[in-house]
């Protein structure tokens, strides 16, 4: 068995999830008569303090469905230049919603209120697109958690412009901030919640919002090919994720801090981001072959991703235990020695 530090997306379902999936009561979700899906959607909406939610195949699907539902074709969406929707969703906003992304610089993932305000189209002009949506992210994919006072300022600036929150790791953010998830969600009109990262469900995300928005999103989901049938088999794992797995994320955060501490003992390793959730970003200031390093770890049953711009990312999750971290660090020491 591999120790897999590439992402928390590699998590496999727990035994409890597998049993729930095996015995899930199902129906046809396109007809809205799958009781397990209905339970999951109500549960998620209640947790986030919203009226409704919609089960979809993935986080990218949820984000793009939000843009597709909020916006008219040709609208402009203001978004951080390093957000997932921009960086890792294959240009889908142009293909599906037909919108223009107006990217703005962020401060470690936090949108700068003054910069945002300067980018909103405040006057109706034949030359300008309409500002149709503002997109936020929390926790950010760089591992940083955005403070709530930042969201409050952005909500005030946005006025009637809707806000979509990519909350793929919102429960990691709420764990770090020590607040209920709804305290983050209240600043957004729609939220993407991912079940298949640190929460261990095998498949699925939820798009959350008010009833009218979700009704419109349901039809758009059908257009995107996301109308699923007896999908309660998957939703059953999502229920376990929301009822149980989100409450253990602090363990992953503690393991990430432990990993960072162990790595920092190497004189040539620099931790480049503050460890707030389950991610450790670091640079290795040493002359070595990256490919040989990755291959050496793989031969020793450790999977990692190549660095991006010279920065490695290790991610802790349910299947990474303290003894695994010790083994990883010891194996790295053998390679560099």
TrEMBL record:
InterPro entries: ArAA_b-elim_lyase/Thr_aldolase, Low_specificity_L-TA-like, PyrdxlP-dep_Trfase, PyrdxlP-dep_Trfase_major, PyrdxlP-dep_Trfase_small
Keyword Iron: no
Keywords: Pyridoxal phosphate
Gene3D superfamilies: Aspartate Aminotransferase, domain 1, Type I PLP-dependent aspartate aminotransferase-like (Major domain)
Keyword Secreted carried by entry: no
Domain Aromatic amino acid beta-eliminating lyase/threonine aldolase: 4-284
UniProt cofactor(s): pyridoxal 5'-phosphate
Family: Belongs to the threonine aldolase family.
Protein's UniProt name: Threonine aldolase
């Amino acid at each position: 068995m591999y120790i897999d530090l590439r992402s928390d997306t590699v998590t496999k379902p727990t035994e409890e999830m597998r049993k729930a999936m095996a015995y899930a009561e199902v129906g046809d979700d396109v007809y809205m008569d799958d009781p397990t899906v209905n339970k999951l959607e109500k549960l998620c909406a209640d947790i986030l303090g919203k009226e409704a939610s919609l089960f979809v195949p993935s986080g990218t699907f949820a984000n793009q469905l939000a843009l597709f539902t909020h916006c008219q074709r040709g609208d402009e969406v203001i978004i951080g230049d390093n957000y997932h929707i921009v960086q890792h969703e294959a240009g889908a906003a142009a293909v599906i919603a037909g919108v223009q992304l107006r990217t703005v610089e962020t401060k470690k993932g936090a949108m700068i209120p003054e910069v945002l305000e300067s980018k909103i189209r405040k006057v109706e002009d034949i030359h300008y697109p309409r500002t149709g949506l503002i997109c936020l992210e929390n926790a950010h994919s760089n591992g940083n958690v955005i403070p709530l006072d930042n969201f409050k300022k952005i909500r005030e600036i946005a006025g009637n412009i809707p806000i979509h929150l990519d909350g793929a790791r919102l429960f990691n953010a709420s764990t770090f901030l020590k607040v209920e998830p709804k305290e983050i969600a209240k600043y957004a009109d729609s939220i993407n919640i991912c079940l298949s990262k640190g929460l261990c469900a095998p498949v699925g995300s939820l798009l959350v919002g008010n009833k009218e928005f979700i009704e419109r999103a349901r039809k758009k989901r059908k257009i995107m090919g996301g109308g699923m049938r007896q999908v309660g088999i998957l939703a059953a794992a999502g229920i376990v994720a929301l009822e149980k797995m989100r409450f253990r994320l602090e363990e992953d955060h503690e393991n990430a801090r432990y990993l960072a501490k162990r790595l920092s003992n190497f004189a040539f390793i620099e931790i480049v981001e503050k460890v707030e959730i389950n991610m450790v970003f670091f640079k290795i200031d040493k002359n070595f072959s990256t490919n040989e390093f990755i291959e050496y770890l793989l031969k020793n049953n450790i999977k990692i991703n190549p660095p991006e711009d010279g920065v490695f990312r290790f991610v802790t999750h349910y299947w990474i235990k303290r003894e695994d971290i010790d083994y990883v660090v010891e194996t790295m020491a053998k390679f560099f020695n």
